[in-house]
Amino acid sequence: MKEIAQWAVEAMSAEGVDYGDARLRRTDREIIMTQNDALRYVDNFTELGIGVRVLVKGRWGFAATPFLTKEDIRKTVKKAVAIAKAAAVVVQEPIKLTQDKPARGVFKTKIEKDPFDIPLGEKAGMLIAAYEKMAARKAIKRVSGRMYFRRMHQHFLSTEGADLENLVYTSAATYNATAVGQGDFQTRGLPEYPKNAGFEWIESLKIVDRADEVAEDVMKKLSADRGPAGKKDLILLPSHLCLTIHESVGHPTELDRVLGWEANFAGTSFATPEKRNQFRYGSPLVNFTADNTLEGGLATWGNDDDGIVGKRWPIIKDGILVNYGTTRDTAHFIGDAESMGCNRADSYASQPINRIPNLSLEPGKEPLSLDELIADTEDGILIDGMGSFSIDQRRYNFQFGGDMFYEIKKGKITKPLKDVIYQAITPEFWNACDAICDERFWEPYGVLNCGKGEPSQTQQMTHGSAPARFRNIDVGGAFNG
After folding, report:
1. Fold exhibited by the domain 2-223
2. Rounded Cα–Cα distance for residues 248 and 297 (Å)
3. Is the full-model pTM beyond 0.85?
4. Which residue ranges make up each domain of the chain?
5. Which of 43, 24, 19, 47 is nearest to 33 (CA)?
6. 468, 235 Cβ separation under 8 angstroms
7. Which end of the chain is more exposed for a tag (fewer CB within 10 A), N or C?
8. Helices (H), 287-418
9. What is the distance between the alpha carbons of residues 413 and 228, in angstroms, rounded to a whole number?
10. What is the pLDDT of residues 425-447, one digit of tens each?
């Protein structure tokens, strides 16, 4: 396969481009969905093709094709060059690339079992077995299950001499139970815990064994009191913080949003460049690290689609905004000489765009367990799992729900709640963080469906954390206004 990408690089050189790269990618994907004891949907998807990107007269040109003959690739390169030349008539600052050293190497996700070798019946059977453990509870009317697997094999070559190969696997499984009764309905899901790993990861999650726990939770929610309104301390678990981190820290620190280039899917960013090394984003306890070398991280691909090898760097240090997620064509706008490697495309046929890296809240430095954190909380709510959310066009004002809620009074969990939401302004929220559990309780949850761009692309990344407490946050039950 690599020879096909080499044809593209040779054609680019013949065209005299200033820079060019080729991504020859095969993607295999399987989605399995069940409802109760029935297999409802299976999507087996394979795509193979090449995307070529050229820089001519300070403008990008991009084209792609699934036809992999030498002549088709030559025509595709010519098309990309023509697009770049057409774009060059627009008078604006030419695109500049950081001068990162061209990388060479091979990266493969560590796996024990290729999920695409596991029979469909075995995978669907696990989801159906989870339903069967819940079915005796008559109030549970529906259990919707889902498994997701992806295998991406890519060769990346550039006119600068980059030569990279990636073989990346992603595996995920979840299900969601719906209970009906008492004039209400409620849902509770198995928190999805996707990872770049093989089928052995799904086996380790014990999804059938955990079905009773999910069933008990949804029954508790059905009879629970609705969440209160007012100021409350919140203890947020990693399964919930994943999405809050994603929306209120991940997207605001993508440099293309910061520069105002990207405004789709809830806008640009308040975290503008003059705030770098100056702005207090969170309390001194708050440290966010981007790490595209994180083992099993959903953005751990070995390199990005600029050919930049995965890196680890701080985004927020001791509460201060210190860096962003950057690419080769954005980094110089904030005075950086190297890219942090955040350019990724969701298909061979998509042009790479600036994406959130694996971005995590560092655990607390002092020993602190979840039980101790609860015992130290006088009046609060514990939130587990993801729920609904909204955030404004500057990533500033937000509102989040969750999947499971518990009232905390005088250091003890007293009862389950339902329909809890909280509202905050991003820097005020992170400055309200006064405690984070230590590394024993750190867990890397992830997002599989991050949408961005026009036309839209879907991407994945991991957001780890330990349980953390946030003081005096505005809380409102969903039906309390």
Report:
1. PmbA/TldD fold (3.30.2290)
2. 19
3. yes
4. 2-223, 226-477
5. 43
6. yes
7. C
8. 370-375
9. 15
10. 999 999 999 999 999 999 999 99
